[in-house]
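ok here's beta-lactamase:
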Amino acid sequence: MRTQLLCLLLLATLPAFAQKEDKQLYAKLKPLLDAHRGVAGVYVHHLKKNKFVAINADTVFPTASMIKTPIAIGVFDKIAKGELQYDSLLEYKDSLLYAGEDILGSFKSGEKIALNKVMMLMLTMSDNTASLWLQSLAGGGTAINAWLEGQGFVHTRVNSRTPGRRDNQRVYGWGQTSPREMATLMEMIYTGKVISPVISDRIYRNLTRNFWDAQGLQQVPKQVRTASKNGAVDESRSEVIMVNAPHGDYVYCIITKENKDQRWAKNNEALVLLRAVGFTIWGHYEKGSKWTPIPIGEQF
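and the structure:
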């Protein structure tokens, strides 16, 4: 366990011992998380300043759909090994269907679709049928978890449809992670440290095309580039975001669990928290910015 933690810290863009806690930002974020009716954790890292904030950052939370980023990495690991081709043509089968409102699930059995388009559906639309198909193509949760463990990740794991992970699935659902690890994974992608610089670049570009662009993303001006993945189930709402901000790139991950408010509404308490955290971080790093986000009632 101690060896894995050391590996994870060493893999960060800048050495952990050089990082300094941003006490001013901590003081702004702590009351927001403390007021949440549930459990909330956040990890923030400003790459240029090399300052961080960690609040419940090593607590284990459900990933919900954020697990689709590790699934994408699992697929690209196969591509790097020559076992899959990014533009190869796949054949959809009805047996792949995960019931819901997914786009891929509306396909007829026998229809063809390129692997890169299935990847787009997973990361952009958060299509569950596409995601489970890609999880299988990556070698399943066992293979993805082996990659994560090999990179020093202690908490981040795929649970669903993965041998030996049933007890974890009962607690956390499809996947599990911590705010620090999910933010670190996003930073590794951005800085070219996932598999190869070329593959990291491709994954990062894919993560900049999120259809689900509310919450933290709407707390950033539209002209600023972001990469993200979010997750939502009844009792947990979360997101990990890399912001290519004018005064320096920063990454953060905010996750909640055991939420008292489980409504699927714009003013859900956890979603309000996600927006407040995103706006607070932006305002802290981009002092003097005149950006005002769209009010909740006017958002589409």
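+1. The CA atoms of residues 28 and 175 lie 29 Å apart.
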